[in-house]
Amino acid sequence: MTREELFEEIKKKRSFLCVGLDTDIDKVPSHLLKEEDPVFEFNKQIIDATKDLCIAYKPNIAFYECRGVVGWESLRKTLEYIPKEIFTIADAKRGDIGNTSLMYARTFFQPESSGLDFDSVTVAPYMGIDSVAPFLGFEGKWAIVLALTSNEGNKDFQYLETEDDFLFEKVITTSREWAGPDRLMYVVGATQPDAFADVRKLAPDHFLLVPGIGAQGGNLSEIAECGLNGQCGLIVNSSRGIIYASGAEDFADKARMQAKKLQEEMQHLLEKM
Ligand SMILES: O=c1ccn([C@@H]2O[C@H](COP(=O)(O)O)[C@@H](O)[C@H]2O)c(=O)[nH]1
User: Fold this and answer.
1) Could you tell me the sign of the dihedral formed by the alpha carbons of 133, 174, 216, 270, in that order?
2) Is the dihedral of CA 193, 198, 204, 209 positive or negative?
3) How buried is 229 (Cβ within 10 angstroms: 0-12 exposed, 13-18 middle, 19+ buried)?
4) PANTHER family annotated for this entry (predicted)?
């Protein structure tokens, strides 16, 4: 998917919401457990309930690969079920020496080998250019580089001071040379609102994938203040806050209500742009 197509979807839906499909079999409502593939059935109902309100879905791969072959099959079916105009993110946080990274890239971008055809994958930049480059070699696909994450542990490395900036800023200034804003996005956690102005100085045109609203306490209007750019430039994720809004038979209706609340807030913020 191109940046223009993504922006068109944002304008059409008046939303920059990403629904995180972090589907934990232990949290799937009990009435679905009799289904052949309860995880897929859960995801299917979440997608049906939210697809007009969001512009992206982000399955976190851990929730699928921990279940082995069965989990990969739930993931494949889920991805196939997502409407083609909606951006898909494999939140896998991959990255290794070049030839290994290429295999990871094929896993998510080459349906003829893996059955999966994601638009993007999250990538850890710690190993440098040759670990990220293989993800940038697929037409129409995106690498989403971890810059400043939403967790407490971000202080251990990402806020270390280098000559004239923090390490997460160095990640951006170095990696923005590897590919432009049509191929590369950055993860910036919603729990770090004060960093958005600095990030925007370094990456004015890049899309930022922003996890951490809802369950982790990030605030949408705070990050929108400095994070929005002329093409929106934000994809804001909520996983647990939407998909586990209810653990009962009404889970899809309750998920829709939470997604709708966020979409309305986003519409308001986009109108102010
Ligand atoms: O910095 C990061 C990077 C990724 N994540 C992932 O996003 C979702 C957040 O889930 P919530 O339930 O909305 O908190 C989850 O898949 C994380 O692994 C992140 O939170 N922070």
Assistant:
1) negative
2) negative
3) middle
4) OROTIDINE 5'-PHOSPHATE DECARBOXYLASE
Q: Tokens 């280098």 correspond to what residue?
A: 162
Return the closest-CA partner of residue 259 out of 207, 214, 208. Answer: 214
Burial of 46 (0-12, 13-18, 19+ CB in 10 A): buried
3-272: what fold? Answer: TIM Barrel (3.20.20)
In the chain, % of residues over pLDDT 90: 98
Say whether 12 is catalytic: no
Q: How close are the terminal C-alpha atoms of the chain, in Å? A: 24
Q: How far is the CA of 13 from the centre of ligand 1 (A)?
A: 23
Q: At what angle do helices 220-227 and 251-271 cross, to 10 degrees?
A: 40
Catalytic choice (12, 34, 44, 93): 93
Joined together, the tokens standing for residue 66 give 């921990």
Rounded CA gap, 4 and 136, in Å? 18
Task: Identify the helix (H) or strand (E) that includes residue 132.
Answer: helix 129-132
C-alpha of residue 145 to centroid of ligand 1, in Å: 14
Ramachandran region, residue 233 (left: φ > 0; alpha: ψ -120 to 50; beta: rest):
left
State the Cα angle at 180 between 114 and 122, rounded to 5°.
Answer: 40
